[in-house]
Amino acid sequence: MSAPRYQTVFQVEDYDLAATLESGQAFRWTEQGGDWEGVVGGHWVRLRPSVGRIEAQAVSDPGDWRWLRDYLRLDDDMGAILDSFPKDEPMAAAIGTCRGLRLLRQEPWECLASFLLSSTKQIPQIRQGVRWLCERFGNAVEGPEGGGRVYAFPGPEILAEVSEMALRECRIGFRAKYLKATAERVARGGLGLDAVGSLTLDEARSLLVTLPGVGPKIADCVLLFAYDFPRAFPVDVWVMRALRDLYFPGRRPLLSRLKRFSETHFGPNAGYAQQYLFHHVRMRAGRVRDRRNVEKDPLHGN
DNA sequence: AGCCAGGCAGAGA
DNA sequence: TCTCTGCATGGC
Questions:
Q1: Strand C close to A206 by CB, under 7 A
Q2: Strand B atom within 7 Å of A217 CB
Q3: Is the CB of A69 under 7 A from strand C?
Q4: Is the predicted pLDDT of residue A1 greater than 80, yes or no?
Q5: Which nucleotide is nearest to A176 (CA to C1')?
Q6: Nucleotide C7: nearest residue by CA–C1'?
Q7: CA(A244)–C1'(B8) in Å?
């Protein structure tokens, strides 16, 4: 191991790195005194945000850093993207509270496998499951001097060979059999992840939901967060509540109605709009939780 | 103690 | 096609 030997600086506008890396898209980033450390494309990286820039450090040769620019989607034109959102009150509020929030462009297998763990789990639990998977089954990656061991996300060929019981020891419960079965199918070429990106959105969805444990929501997460389909629109419990409360107040629209609405209302960057709504309503709920925690302060008894 | 979490699959109506 | 239920686990 060695100290970070490689570094570069990206000039950025409207990039809230902390919000982006904690927004429930990716699950491996950890914050260390304002820096963010993670593994992308087999490289350990440290990201240090400051006004108008993100400094990146690596310990293994990063080449031209293109892989990291792509991952962070530094070339997204946020002005044009925000301008494509519907001009309504909910989106105006979301834009107001999520300034600088970005989508990422992740590696398909890691994204797919991570979201296979996501059903009825909270984001901190997903992060924990992903971390245990990497520590137990991932290949070692060169990390910083004095840091802990660093591991890559285990590929499908690795997880396909792991027993369901061993996977369950990562506390992923019933999701273990889905992860193993999906890894087996991908590893033996039963579903070419490389080809998904060249399909149409509908074709790609239809293909992904044939994987065990992958339904419409997880498929759209992968299509949005890894394959860069701008109209993919994952509807989870948060987004469903947001759509109901903000666009159908006092009514009880079916999920199918909400999905149809989402396909037409949010425009060519609907996926981005979805992430803004998701983050917006989670931040509002977080403030409510914080108030409750204050009320439960030990000083006030219970 | 019970409810909920970036859901999905299978069964029955 | 819609609705209901079981599924692991952990936090509050």
A1: no
A2: yes
A3: no
A4: no
A5: C8
A6: A174
A7: 22
Beta-strand ranges (E) seen in A94-184 are 140-141, 150-151
With CA atoms as reference, report the closest residue to A102 among A134, A54, A62. A54
Q: Please report which helix (H) or strand (E) contains residue A48, including its range.
A: strand A43-50
Residue type, A5: R
Cβ of A192: how many Cβ atoms within 10 Å?
A: 9
Using CA atoms, how far residue A119 sits from A113, A141, A237, in Å, is 12, 29, 11
CA A231 to chain centre: 16
A267 touches strand C (CB under 7 A): no
- Quick one: A17 exposed, middle or buried, by C-beta within 10 A (0-12, 13-18, 19+)? buried
A180 given a catalytic annotation: no
Per-residue pLDDT tens over the stretch A196-252: 999 999 999 999 999 999 999 999 999 999 999 999 999 999 999 999 999 999 888
pTM of the predicted model as reported, rounded to 2 decimal places = 0.95
